[in-house]
Each structure stands twice: as structure tokens, then as C-alpha cells.
């Protein structure tokens, strides 16, 4: 389990727009893991992070979303919803497993592996300063912004 005070696990993944991201960076970051592009909760979360991106940027905080969806799906998701956050593709579950968010889930009596919606706030030295697991989308992005303000102002 990745906890507050731990060093953020490192990874390199492809991103929407044909880029690549290596993590952790030397800049404070919000790293949010979400289950699937173009689903209601994931769309709301990505749109809310996008709408508050300027406020995070003013604090010197980058935002990166990660799911197992392909880069092509991310590109479509970004275009469809005018997202401004960077989305990384992790189909091999490298980052998902490193952050312990690839978990066994249960739904309507069915058990399967999936992504636990989770967010990590990481400082510029690569230390985890806040963690949200089993995230409920409503109010979450505002809570992350308030935490970022308390850590980085």
C-alpha cells in the first residue's frame, strides 16, 4: 500500500496527444487514477480537474490522470469533453499495480479486477503528501485543491 510519507513509485507511460510522461516529476503533482474514459463518474472527475487546472497551476501543481484505456481512447475522451488535463495510458497496469489501485472489485455478485478510483498528492521531491482512496466524485476535486493549497502555499 502506498501511504502518506512514502516516495511515489516511478513509471513512464504514453499520454494523450502522442506524448510520454515520467513520474514522479520535480514538480508537485496530482495523480488521479480512474476506471474508464467516457463513463459518468470519470467524465465528471476529468472535467472538474480540467476546470480547476489553472488554480492548480497557480500553486505549481501538475495534474495527471491514469487509466488502462488506450491513448486513442484518451485522445477521443479529451476531444469530446474539451479536457485540459493530461491522461496517461496504462494497459499493462504498471502504475496501477505500483500504486495498489488495481484491485479486486465486486458488482452485482460478480468479482473482477479493476481500478479503484484514487488520488495522490505528491510534492516536488516525490513524496506523497495526501492520499484519497475509494473516491466519491462529488466534491472530490475541490477537496484535492484545498489540500494542495494547504501543502503548497
Report what the structure shows.
With 153 residues, this protein is an alpha/beta fold. Helices cover 31% and strands 31% of the residues. The chain has five helices and nine strands. It has helices spanning 40-51, 53-58, 71-81, 94-98, 140-152, and strands spanning 11-14, 20-23, 28-33, 61-67, 86-89, 102-107, 110-115, 118-122, 128-132. The strands form three sheets. Strands 5-4-3-8-9 form a five-stranded mixed sheet. Strands 1-2 form a two-stranded antiparallel ribbon. A hairpin with a 5-residue loop joins strand 1 and strand 2. The longest helix has 13 residues, at 140-152. The chain is globular. The protein starts with 10 loop residues before the first strand and ends with a helix. The mean pLDDT is 97.
Quick recap:
The protein has 5 helices and 9 strands; from the N terminus they run E-E-E-H-H-E-H-E-H-E-E-E-E-H. The chain is 31% helix and 31% strand.
Topology of this structure?
Layout: E1 11-14, E2 20-23, E3 28-33, H1 40-51, H2 53-58, E4 61-67, H3 71-81, E5 86-89, H4 94-98, E6 102-107, E7 110-115, E8 118-122, E9 128-132, H5 140-152
Parallel strand pairs: 3-4, 4-5
Antiparallel strand pairs: 1-2, 3-8, 6-7, 8-9
User: What is the strand arrangement across the widest sheet?
Assistant: 5-4-3-8-9
Residue-averaged pLDDT: 97
| % residues in beta strands | 25-35%
Give me the Rg, rounded.
Answer: 14 Å
Q: How many runs of DSSP E, i.e. beta strands?
A: 9
Helix % is 25-40%
Low-confidence region ranges? none
Structural class: alpha/beta
What string gives the helices and strands in order? EEEHHEHEHEEEEH
Amino acid at each position: 500500500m502506498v501511504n502518506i510519507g512514502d516516495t511515489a513509485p516511478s513509471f513512464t507511460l504514453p499520454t494523450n496527444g502522442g506524448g510520454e510522461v515520467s513520474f514522479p516529476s520535480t514538480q508537485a503533482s496530482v495523480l488521479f487514477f480512474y476506471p474508464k474514459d467516457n463513463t459518468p463518474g470519470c467524465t465528471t472527475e476529468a472535467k472538474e480537474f480540467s476546470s480547476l487546472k489553472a488554480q492548480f497551476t497557480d500553486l505549481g501543481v501538475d495534474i495527471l490522470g491514469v487509466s488502462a484505456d488506450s491513448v486513442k481512447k484518451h485522445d477521443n475522451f479529451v476531444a469530446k469533453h474539451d479536457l485540459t488535463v493530461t491522461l496517461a495510458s496504462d494497459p499493462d497496469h504498471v502504475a496501477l499495480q505500483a500504486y495498489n489501485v488495481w484491485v479486486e472489485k465486486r458488482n452485482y455478485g460478480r468479482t473482477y479486477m479493476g481500478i479503484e478510483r484514487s488520488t495522490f498528492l505528491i510534492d516536488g521531491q516525490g513524496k506523497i503528501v495526501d492520499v484519497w482512496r475509494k473516491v466519491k466524485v462529488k466534491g472530490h476535486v475541490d477537496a484535492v485543491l484545498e489540500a494542495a493549497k494547504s501543502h503548497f502555499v
